[in-house]
Amino acid sequence: MTWSPFQVSGNAEHESRSFIPNKRLLPMMNKKICMVGAFAVGKTSLVKRYVESLFSEKYHTTIGVKIDKKNLTYQNKDVQLMIWDIEGVDIFTDLKPSYLRGASGILLVIDGTRSKSLETAKQVKQLVDDNLGKIPTLLLINKSDLRESWQFSEDDTKSLAISENNTFITSAKTDQNVERAFERITHLMVED
Ligand SMILES: Nc1nc2c(ncn2[C@@H]2O[C@H](COP(=O)(O)OP(=O)(O)OP(=O)(O)O)[C@@H](O)[C@H]2O)c(=O)[nH]1
Ligand SMILES: [Mg+2]
After folding, report:
1. Which of 91, 97, 111, 154 is most buried by a 10 A CB count?
2. Is residue 126 a part of any domain in this protein?
3. 87-91, 147-151, 152-156: segment of lowest average pLDDT
4. Probe ligand 1: pick from 34, 35, 36, 44, max atoms within 8 Å of CB?
5. Domain for residue 95, yes or no?
6. If you ran DSSP here, which 8-state letter would residue 171 be given?
7. Residue of the nearest CA to atom 21 in ligand 1?
8. SS3 for 65?
9. For residue range 85-108, what is the model confidence (pLDDT) as tens digits?
10. Are 31 and 79 in contact (CB under 8 A)?
11. Which atom of ligand 1 is nearest to the CA of 89?
12. Which residues on adjacent β-strands are paired with residue 176?
């Protein structure tokens, strides 16, 4: 078994039932993560996979924002992730800067099967940079299970200026790299 600094302890609701006040020496850290990108790239599916270990082929577009919580322990620090799953950008919907307020980390999601989602990601990244400055940001190239239908290569994503260390090829369907991506953003946010 490989060593990991993480211990995942389920979602906040489950955690609160077994909470023992005296056990905690340090206050819990709260970190807000925003899932952003074009519509239908898989933002909701990635959160559902990470928080509930579930996947569905059905598409229910997100209206506004949905917030999920996940508790974990990172290097003996209790961390509560507040995951803001924000409605996708399309011709009718821009990313609302107010949703970004207070974020400590960004997961920018694109869909490998739709090159338009990369174009949208460039605009979204610009808006995030303008509003939040430099904060930990990962690029998730999602739907790796459909790789034969991908419309662009990893090289094409270089214009987003997100390093290789912070780029993950994911699949909410097969669970590829989903946990690793959330662990990486947690590491960056806690060490920040
Ligand atoms: N094959 C495959 N399908 C996926 C994957 N992730 C999401 N999907 C599908 O893509 C569609 C859209 O997924 P959502 O998670 O709702 O996408 P979203 O980005 O939250 O969409 P909006 O809320 O409209 O912005 C759904 O039909 C999902 O089942 C994946 O990794 N692989
Ligand atoms: Mg959604």
Report:
1. 111
2. yes
3. 152-156
4. 44
5. yes
6. B
7. 40
8. strand
9. 999 999 999 999 999 999 999 999
10. yes
11. 25
12. 171
Whether 149 is in the pocket of ligand 1, judged by its Cβ within 6 Å, is no
Ligand lying closest to the C-alpha of residue 58: 1
Is residue 94 within 8 Å of 38, Cβ to Cβ?
A: no
Ligand 1 contacts CB of residue 42 (under 6 A): yes
Token digits of residue 107: 């997961």
**Mode of pairing for the β-strands spanning 105-111 and 137-142:** parallel
Give the single-character DSSP code of 94: P
Residue 164, number of CB atoms within 10 A of its CB: 10
Range of the domain at 187: 26-191
How far apart, in whole angstroms, are the C-alpha atoms of residue 36 and residue 129?
13
Q: Are 85 and 43 in contact (CB under 8 A)?
A: yes
CATH number of 61's domain? 3.40.50.300
CA of 31 to the centre of ligand 1 (A): 24
- 14 within a domain of the structure (yes/no): no
- Count the domains in the chain: 1
The CA 45 to ligand 2 mean position distance, Å, reads 7
Under 8 Å between Cβ of 34 and 136: no
pLDDT in tens, 25-75: 667 899 999 999 999 999 999 999 999 999 999 999 999 999 999 999 998
Query: Which runs of consecutive H residues, i.e. helices, occur in 26-68?
Result: 43-52
